């Protein structure tokens, strides 16, 4: 009984020692879950910030493109104005030269005298006035032409100054927007790096959780094995004790039988001797009593104990390039797709993503797709090989509307 009680106590102690590390490590697994949840929330927040930054980048690039278009239009107008100024100056010079030649000819040929003569040769006052009016009109016409050309030149000069001022302002605005775009690009790069770091951390936590779960499963299996072995050992010891007790009982019964038979034989011999003594009448009847002694032997039993070894489980250890490409469309709303890209971007938070062939466009690049806008090259696909991209849309209807088309892709960074 003492041995059985000792076996039960030893089993309980062994079970406690084996199970305690499991409870302790369960806290470690809970801590890993908390860390994973915190990093996931942070990644979702970063994804939202990336989408906002991407929207800002699209707006800034749109403004830059609009300003560049205005600059181009203004340059065309400015060039046209300069050409008109040059042409007007040439007309003025030609008109001045012509007037000078006429005056020179008039002085040489006596045109003034002819004009006076023509007036004097008038038949009557009406003809005189008509001839004088005609000469005045000719002179005024020449003066008006020269004056109008001068006014046109002044207007063109003012227009040129206004256009140059507008050009300078547009250039300054373009530089300012480009500077803001560079800042947004840097912000996008930092956010993408944070998202990538969080992805690495989540992968490490996932691996640590798998290792921890495997270790706990191994410890539980080891504890069950130890408890089973202790139970089997206690049962074996009990059976051995019962067997030893039975052997001792059987041996004692056999010895008692032998003592009984010896006593019966001695009693028969004494009866025969008594009969012989009675025949001799001269002797007094006597009886002899004999004491039978019996010896008992005690048997000893030996018990062997076995030790178990605990085993611990092993733990596993912008280039600015422009490309002409074919574009298709996909959506995370389709049942066959997931919400996360190959870079870990949540498409519900960041829908402005395209799938690319990484050998053509590196993952993580910022690109501009004609008709689509600024997007991140953040996904891949089995059918996306070579000069093919897949533009993501939030709904299937947008995908159908986009269809398949040829686009111009500019790698920004």
UniProtKB/TrEMBL annotation:
Q: Which CDD domains match?
A: DPBB_YuiC-like
Return the InterPro entries for the record: 3D_dom (IPR010611), PcsB_CC (IPR057309), Resuscitation_pf_RpfB (IPR051933), RlpA-like_sf (IPR036908)
Q: Where is this region: Disordered?
A: 287-323
* Gene3D superfamilies linked to this entry: 6.10.250.3150
Ranges of residues in domain 3D: 353-412
Q: A Pfam family for this UniProt protein?
A: CC_PcsB
Record-annotated Peptidoglycan hydrolase PcsB coiled-coil domain positions:
85-157
One of the GO BP terms on file: peptidoglycan turnover
Keywords (alphabetical) are: Coiled coil, Signal
Leader peptide range in chain numbering = 1-26
PANTHER family, from UniProt?
A: CELL WALL-BINDING PROTEIN YOCH
**Which protein is depicted?**
Uncharacterized protein
């Amino acid at each position: 009984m003492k041995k059985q009680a000792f076996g039960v106590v030893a089993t309980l102690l062994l079970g406690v020692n084996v199970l305690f590390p499991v409870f302790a490590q369960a806290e470690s697994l809970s801590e890993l879950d908390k860390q994973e949840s915190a990093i996931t929330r942070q990644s979702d927040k970063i994804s939202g910030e990336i989408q906002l930054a991407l929207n800002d980048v699209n707006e800034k690039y749109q403004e830059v493109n609009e300003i560049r278009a205005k600059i181009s239009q203004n340059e065309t107008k400015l060039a046209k104005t300069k050409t008109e100024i040059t042409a007007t100056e040439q007309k003025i010079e030609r008109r001045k030269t012509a007037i000078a030649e006429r005056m020179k000819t008039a002085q040489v040929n006596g045109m003034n005298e002819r004009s006076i003569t023509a007036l004097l040769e008038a038949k009557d006052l009406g003809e005189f006035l008509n001839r004088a009016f005609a000469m005045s009109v000719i002179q005024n016409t020449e003066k008006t032409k020269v004056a109008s050309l001068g006014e046109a030149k002044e207007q063109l000069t003012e227009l040129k100054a206004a256009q140059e001022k507008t050009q300078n302002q547009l250039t300054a605005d373009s530089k300012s927007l480009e500077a803001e775009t560079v800042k947004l690009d840097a912000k996008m790069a930092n956010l993408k790096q944070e998202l990538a770091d969080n992805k690495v951390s989540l992968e490490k936590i996932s691996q640590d959780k798998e290792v921890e779960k495997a270790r706990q499963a191994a410890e539980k299996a080891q504890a069950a094995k130890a408890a089973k072995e202790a139970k089997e050992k206690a049962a074996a010891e009990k059976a051995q004790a019962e067997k030893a007790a039975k052997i001792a009982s059987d041996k004692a019964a056999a010895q008692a039988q032998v003592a009984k038979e010896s006593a019966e034989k001695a009693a028969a011999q004494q009866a025969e001797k008594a009969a012989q003594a009675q025949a001799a009448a001269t002797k007094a009847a006597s009886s002899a009593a004999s004491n039978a002694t019996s010896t008992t032997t005690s048997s000893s039993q030996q018990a062997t104990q076995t030790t178990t070894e605990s085993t611990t489980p092993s733990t596993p250890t912008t280039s600015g390039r422009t490309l002409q490409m074919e574009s298709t469309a996909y959506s995370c709303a389709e049942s066959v797709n997931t919400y996360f890209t190959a870079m870990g971007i949540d498409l519900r938070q960041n829908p402005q993503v395209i799938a690319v062939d990484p050998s053509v466009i590196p993952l993580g690049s910022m690109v501009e797709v004609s008709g689509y806008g600024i997007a991140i090259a953040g996904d891949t696909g089995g059918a996306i090989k070579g000069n093919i991209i897949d533009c993501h849309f939030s709904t299937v209807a947008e995908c159908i509307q986009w269809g398949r088309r040829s686009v111009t892709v500019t790698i920004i960074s």
